[in-house]
Design brief:
- There is one protein chain.
- About 25% of the residues are buried.
- It is built from two helices and 15 strands.
- Strands 1, 2, 3, 4, 12, 13, 14 and 15 form an eight-stranded antiparallel β-sheet that branches.
- The chain has helices spanning about 10-35, 235; strands spanning about 35-40, 50-55, 90-95, 100-110, 115, 120-125, 125, 130-135, 150-155, 160-165, 180, 185-190, 205, 210-220, 245.
- Strand 6 and strand 7 form a beta hairpin.
- The protein has a single domain (about 10-70, about 85-215), classed as Umud Fragment, subunit A (Ribbon), CATH 2.10.109.
- By secondary structure, it is mainly beta.
């Protein structure tokens, strides 16, 4: 009679395997599916606030060399790509320095003519409707504006979102006409008077530089609360922003 001896693995090794599998799964999700980002500035107010933590859909536009950790030049262009839509909130690599991530709203597609005239966005010669939509106050110490006029813009496809107009006749309210070249996009911040975007030094953003589309705010701390100050979370949590879709 033959006895079968089962080899039992130690609980410690089983725990190590579970941890390794979980880490590998996290790496795959972060690299190919969703990546968390923190909003560090007020350029996308009122849509995104300083202290928002968001998920970015990395497969929305396919993948480029900037989709992966590090600076490995694995390939050029995009694979499994799909075209972004006008009005998407997009994370991309800053063209003059691709090691830096930016987040803005895509307003210009390849071939579009983009211009700001008296604070109104013109796309291909037509003004984007802009109507008053209340006021906005910030709890961010470096941009503490209160009762800032909010204007709701509506694109030709029905996409609608709020913008801020802090400074009448600001430096970005009247621009030359920009023509978006093939394979590039024109980006603007919703905080129109406090955003470094395609009107200024960002310039046109190559398709290769797109990282993904912002989809959801999953966590949000106000009043410049550091993430590490867990004891301050209850008082400074923006509860109404948790799991809020990015429009």
């Amino acid at each position: 009679m033959t006895k079968t001896v089962e080899k039992q693995q130690s609980p410690l090794w089983e725990n190590i395997k579970v941890i390794i599998q979980a880490l590998l799964l996290a790496v795959v999700i972060r690299t190919f599916l969703f990546q968390p980002f923190t909003i560090p500035s007020g350029s996308m107010m009122p849509t995104l606030l300083v202290g928002d933590y968001i998920f970015v859909n990395k497969f929305a536009y396919g993948f480029s060399k900037y989709s992966f950790p590090g600076t490995f030049n694995l390939f050029s262009g995009r694979i499994f790509g799909s075209e972004p839509k006008r009005g998407d909130v997009v994370v991309f690599r800053f063209p003059p320095n691709p090691s830096v991530d930016y987040i803005k709203r895509l307003v210009g597609l390849p071939g579009d003519h983009i211009q700001m005239i008296d604070g109104v966005l013109y796309i291909n010669g037509k003004p984007v409707p802009k109507v008053p939509d209340g006021t906005f106050s910030s709890d961010y110490s470096l941009d503490p504006g209160s009762h800032i006029p909010v204007y709701r813009e509506t694109l030709s496809d029905g996409k609608t979102y709020d913008t801020l107009d802090q400074i009448p006749d600001g430096p970005g309210d009247n621009t030359r006409e920009f023509i978006v070249p093939p394979g590039h996009y024109f980006m603007m911040g919703d905080n129109r008077d406090n955003s470094a975007d395609s009107r200024f030094d960002v310039g046109m953003v190559p398709a290769e530089n797109l990282v993904g589309r912002a989809t959801m705010v999953f966590f949000s701390l106000g009043h410049d609360t550091p993430f590490s100050h867990i004891w301050d979370w209850p008082a400074n949590m923006r509860w109404g922003r948790l799991f809020k879709a990015v429009q």
